[in-house]
């Protein structure tokens, strides 16, 4: 059974940093596209960053460009989101997601309905 577990969330002051991890189990996700999404209170879930199956292409929401970095370690079956210069508006529950289709290409997937497996989320709270 596929399981994604996020960790690394917490409370941080504005300007601080956090590193989120998404550990996958149940199968290997090397060469499967992955992404981070977030949902703030009262708002819809949105894409934060996505990474291609081969790990060589990334995509970011405009609001996080230059501050967040998505990466993956296929040997560890883990994806990361390094978040720097955090702002109060980054406060949200962050979710990791993986497509179930093997894709060893540069293709990026940005829609929620394109992802098949989801973690339960980790809370990130940024205080001003």
Care to describe what's here?
- With 128 residues, the chain is mainly β.
- The chain has no helices and 11 strands.
- The strands form 2 sheets. Strands 2, 4, 5, 6, 9, 10 and 11 form a 7-stranded mixed sheet that branches.
- It starts with a strand and ends with a strand.
Largest sheet: 7 strands, mixed
Termini separation: 40 Å
Number of helices: 0
SSE string: EEEEEEEEEEE
What would you call the structural class?
mainly beta
Quote the average pLDDT. Answer: 96
Radius of gyration: 14 Å
Low-confidence stretches: none
- Which bin fits the share of residues in helices? under 10%
Strand content: over 45%
Principal-axis shape: globular
* Secondary structure tally: strands: 11
